[in-house]
């Protein structure tokens, strides 16, 4: 079998581990692996490279993706779907393994419906893909965010100021929720639950009153219940997502004005996405890669490999991309116990 592989959307620690697992795992059956560069762009334009053992040597601990990535959407390009089919024909590709989030796998689902043999692999540091308990990349991002919060506690307390940490999470607050709980945040704000500015200020004030300084962890996609605190540039990517950023800075100024104490914002941004994957993410990514191969050998198509408990299972791509996995209110209630 000739297998095409690609990585699309935002990069994510662990992508190389999946690529390596597919290439290494395909050796015994004699499958060939072709890597398309920069996600769906490489498929649209027929930009590909042979992925043999030499191509994957040493990449397990490396962040990013050796194949490159982009947010190219073939369905937003005139004749895009036909160009994708033509490339697959030209390269003699029997099956595709797209590694991506909701957007990349949304394209995969449409291609599967069009008759292409596809087994998707979920990735996103946001952990918001439905159908899987965890995506790889999340654990690494969480480690970065938690370490940052640990460090900010000591400098915040020394200067008696509020530190607002803005973390990634466009639609879902999983990074903020977990990092806020692991790091002992004063308040955690997530996109799923618009926040009350007065309550945030009151939590910060209470923290100051107890002799310590507040740490506010806010997802980039979080919004206040009322008012128009900030926060997007207005630019959109090919999947229609607005470029976010700015809620942390806006919130820090507001908290400073309302508490009368100095405040600073720290935007973790792409630091959360870069660098070497955690052992958990390397293992999950490797298992996903092997499971994708197994699914292809079992004749599957239109499915995504997923983690359920400790097992790797297959779920229909359509089901996995139909909605995002958001933070449930009861999970937020757990972290709320520690506010103030
Ligand atoms: O989807 C993952 C993600 O990291 C989001 O949390 C964030 O909004 C977005 O990617 C940032 O994308 P870009 O790399 O285009 O700035």
Automatic annotation (TrEMBL):
Q: Which NCBIfam families match?
A: PFK_mixed (TIGR02483), PRK03202.1 (NF002872)
Documented activity regulation: Non-allosteric.
Q: Does the keyword Glycoprotein apply?
A: no
Per UniProt, subcellular location reads as: Cytoplasm
Any one Gene Ontology MF annotation carried by this entry is: monosaccharide binding
Instruction: Report the cofactors.
Output: Mg(2+)
Taxonomically, the superkingdom here is Bacteria
Q: Quick one: which gene encodes this?
A: pfp
| Chief place of localization | cytoplasm
GO biological process terms, alphabetically, are:
canonical glycolysis; fructose 1,6-bisphosphate metabolic process; fructose 6-phosphate metabolic process
Q: Name one GO cellular component term.
A: 6-phosphofructokinase complex
Q: Where is this site: Important for catalytic activity and substrate specificity?
A: 103
Q: Which reaction does it catalyse?
A: beta-D-fructose 6-phosphate + diphosphate = beta-D-fructose 1,6-bisphosphate + phosphate + H(+)
What's the protein here called?
A: Pyrophosphate--fructose 6-phosphate 1-phosphotransferase
- The entry's Mg(2+)-binding residues are 102
Q: State the EC number(s).
A: 2.7.1.90
Give me the residues that bind substrate, please. 124-126, 161, 168-170, 220, 264, 270-273
**This protein's UniProt keywords:** Cytoplasm, Glycolysis, Kinase, Magnesium, Metal-binding, Transferase
State how it assembles.
Answer: Homodimer or homotetramer.
**Matching PANTHER family, A to Z?**
ATP-DEPENDENT 6-PHOSPHOFRUCTOKINASE 3 (PTHR13697:SF52), PHOSPHOFRUCTOKINASE (PTHR13697)
Pathway involvement? Carbohydrate degradation; glycolysis; D-glyceraldehyde 3-phosphate and glycerone phosphate from D-glucose: step 3/4
Q: Where is the active site?
A: 126 (proton acceptor)
- Family the entry assigns: Belongs to the phosphofructokinase type A (PFKA) family. Mixed-substrate PFK group III subfamily.
| Ranges where the Phosphofructokinase domain occurs | 2-296
Q: Where does diphosphate bind?
A: 10
Site positions (Important for catalytic activity) are 123
Q: What does this protein do?
A: Catalyzes the phosphorylation of D-fructose 6-phosphate, the first committing step of glycolysis. Uses inorganic phosphate (PPi) as phosphoryl donor instead of ATP like common ATP-dependent phosphofructokinases (ATP-PFKs), which renders the reaction reversible, and can thus function both in glycolysis and gluconeogenesis. Consistently, PPi-PFK can replace the enzymes of both the forward (ATP-PFK) and reverse (fructose-bisphosphatase (FBPase)) reactions.
